[in-house]
Amino acid sequence: MKRIAKYLSSLALIGAVASCGAKGVGGGDAGPLPTWQDGGGDAGTHAGVDAGADGGAGPGGDAGVDGGTDAGPAILDEAAISTTSKSLGDHEPSVAASPEGDMVVSWLSYISGGITVGYRISSDDGQTWGPATLLPFQPGNNVQANASVAADAKGTLYLAWGAEQVDSQGNRSNQHVYVATASPGEYAFGSPVEVDDPTEAVGIYDQPHVVLTASGTINVSYEKDSVDFATSYIVDATSTDGQTWSRTTVAGPGSAGSGRGMARICAPAAEGRIFISYADSDVGSALGWSDDDGVTWQTGSPTAVQESTELAEWVYGIAPCVTDGTNVDVLYSLSKNPSQQTGTTVALVSSLRLAHSSNAGASIDDREDVEDLAAGQYYLNPWLTGEPSGALDVAYYAGDCANDPAATLRFSHAADGKTFAPSVIAADNLVLETSREALQWFGDYLGLYDAAGTLDLVSTDNTTTPTTIRFFSTTAPAATPGLAPTPDGGSCNLVDAGPTLQLGSSCVLPQSQTAVDPCNAVGLVCTLAGDGGAEGTCQLPGELYGCATATGCAQAPIPCACTAVPGAGDYCLQSCTASIDCLDPETSCQSLGGSTEYCLPNYCGPGVQPANGATFYGPCTVTSDDDGFCLSFEFPTTNGGTGTSPEGVCFATGAAAAGAPCQYYRTDAGAASLCGAGLQCVPDDTGTHGYCEPVCELDQVAGNPAGDAGPSCAGACAGYGAGADWGL
Question: How far is it, in rounded angstroms, from Cα 260 to Cα 254?
């Protein structure tokens, strides 16, 4: 709800599509018919028609006939489960189910004049449904959002959400957190009960999340910000009857200017320790715990879920958790460009990392990436759920670039809780929307829930206008076939690197800043020629991008400004105040002598191994004690010590293999030993760069030796015929 003012500002745009499928106030919406499949048999039918008017009660038609006969998973796939006569677009769904078959799905709905929460209830595991219903506004509120749902063992359903008033200037007031319940067999929630402290003055309440413990205690975690937004807290409200609530501060206020939010509690099926994961700008993804069902929380520091070296790529967002009371797993997100995340844009996730603790959250034992690389380059809204057997399931949206129109919804199963099978496509032809202001935005989360071995998945379907909520369910996640993958068709401006792409190869930089750099396939970056065009050459990470002040740096892969480097020309440089600001991992924040600092290639003086030995081939080759920083090929640099660094780049020092870069025109005493045995440093056909090649080769091809390196000409070049590189 932090960005509700942005939501409201979008309503004028949403209104333009309000007529799509609308039937008028009070009109009955014809409910979608689910597709029911049992193994390899024919699809069965559900002949019932869902109830009509918003808020009406009753189930959505009779159960259909199961036409399948073959063994296999039962799959239920129902589109547009959220359709109502008033909704102008739905997103951000949540789902929960009880062992008795009572199930609820919630979502956020844009409507004329505001935003509210929608829900739909089933009493037979989603085979039939009550009506899609929108919550009426509470007095003094025009925004209701960030809904979550839970179910207890007997079938009672719970719905939590935040509410506030937002005026036309974006001023916010009258903030509340509510919970409502629905008894087993009912298709509507009762009157809401306020969870927060109504006497508190706050800036916002955000992301309320409801969870039931094994003893039946209701927990609602949420973010609370001060009126001036200078401090933020994580609060957990608990109740045993849903009417009377007590509140405990879990985290905050933290350091000056810090923030925390996106809290999610996970509880074991049996009584035991419960956990809370949340985003904290002081810690990263943080993990706390309670041994009394949330009445009190640990008094010491939380456990940092990610490694400290991952903080530069950490994404401030939801990190769902699963636990049996002792073991706990947390799914967190990393990004190649986390600074993409702003008030109006979400960062594309490049790694979905699962952290595991086997000692009740005291420390993290293991971290493993769980994304399916075949699904795409980037991911959004990952979610995690657990099964009684200890198996885990993950779900996420996947694609190859921002706004990829061929994105998919994926889920994957790990029977052992660690080794995830190839992902299954549950929905395709989605748009990987990154703008929070766009009508096709997914929202902050999707819904994934395991109920007695049945995996229920709810997602935003943005293939339609307006967007709707889709329900997908399978009784056997590991055996579900899913949809066949559809080729992207070039929608992300991808460039096929091909097997011959190497250092010095020509490349075309994709226009999208989130698209795939073609040189990435060989650990390089596409460096622009500096003429304002998109063509360049594959170079080592850390090299800077030439530019012309007239054309600027619009096509650089990171946000830069065309900056004059004394004695070297104009280059695309990213300004910074600290090294963590630098998006290129091979750069750090350094001074060029003025008041502004820039991201320049990292220092690598004598004996200092670079962070990426795969692309920077050893420490700097110069021998003085003060080498400065490893600047790009084009930067002649004179250090402040006794020697001169003609290149200043990290290159081979004597162990480099064939094809490795080297400084071929060095004249100092160490130049002869740049390359390994039987190799020498030879310039390529551009006369700009050198590579370690067999000593007998002539007319070198950049980085591509014609034969195996050997200790002599006879060993290295014997057998070459006409047209090949000749041995002498």
Answer: 9
**3-class DSSP state for residue 611?**
coil
Residue 125 tokens read as: 């595991």
Among 24-28, 171-175, 559-563, the minimum mean pLDDT is found in 24-28
Residue pLDDT, tens place only, 342-386:
888 999 999 999 999 999 999 999 999 999 998 998 999 999 999
Cβ within 8 Å of residue 290, ≥6 positions away: 236, 273, 274, 275, 276, 296, 297, 298
User: Are the beta carbons of 694 and 675 closer than 8 angstroms?
Assistant: no
- Separation between Cα atoms, residue 662 and residue 649, nearest integer Å: 9
Count of other CB atoms within 10 angstroms of residue 102: 25
Query: If pLDDT is split at 50, 70 and 90, which confidence band does 110 have?
Result: very high
Three-state secondary structure string covering 211-249: EECCCCCEEEEEEEECCCCCCEEEEEEEECCCCCCEEEE
Confidence (pTM)? 0.66
| Cα–chain center distance at 452 | 28
Q: What one-character DSSP code corresponds to residue 349?
A: B
Which DSSP state fits 37?
E
Residue 340 phi, psi dihedral angles, 5° rounding = -60, -25
Name residues whose C-beta falls within 8 Å of residue 274's C-beta, 6 or more positions apart in sequence: 211, 213, 219, 265, 266, 267, 268, 289, 290, 293, 294, 323
For 288-325, write each residue's pLDDT tens digit: 999 999 999 999 999 999 999 999 999 999 999 999 99
Instruction: Return all residues near 142 (Cβ < 8 A) that are at least 6 apart.
Output: 113, 114, 115, 165, 166
> Do 384 and 320 form a contact (C-beta atoms < 8 A)?
yes
CB-based burial, 604-626: b 16+ in 10 Å, e otherwise: bbbeeebeeeebbbbbbbbebee
Which two tokens mark 396? 């996420």
Both tokens assigned to 255: 């350091």
pLDDT in the model for residue 546: 62
End-to-end CA distance of the chain: 73
User: Are 228 and 218 spatial neighbours (Cβ–Cβ below 8 Å)?
Assistant: no
d(CA 494, CA 497): 9
Spell out the residues 6+ positions from residue 27 whose beta carbon is closer than 8 angstroms to its own: 52, 53, 85
Q: Is residue 610 pLDDT above 60, yes or no?
A: no
550-583 CB burial, b ≥16 within 10 A, e <16: eeebebbbbebbbbebeebebbbbbebeeeebbb
Tokens representing 423 are 């992902």
Residue 35 has a CB neighbour count (10 Å cut-off) of 15
CA gap 62, 47 in Å, rounded: 7
Q: Give the containing element (helix H, strand E) for 182.
A: strand 172-182
Whole-angstrom distance, CA of residue 225 vs CA of residue 603: 41
Cα–Cα distance measured from residue 230 to residue 530, given in angstroms and rounded to the nearest whole number: 43
Contacts with 382 (C-beta within 8 Å, 6 or more apart), sequence order: 320, 331, 333, 349, 352, 394, 395, 396
Condensed to tens digits (0 to 9), the pLDDT of residues 439-454 reads 899 999 999 999 888 9
Distance between CA atoms of 439 and 561, rounded to whole angstroms? 32
Percent of residues in the chain assigned helix, strand, coil, to nearest 5: 5, 35, 60
Is the distance from CB of 646 to CB of 663 less than 8 angstroms? yes
What pLDDT was estimated at residue 247? 98
pLDDT score, position 672: 54
Query: Residue 157's beta-bridge partner residues?
Result: 151, 182
C-alpha span between 644 and 638 (Å, rounded): 5
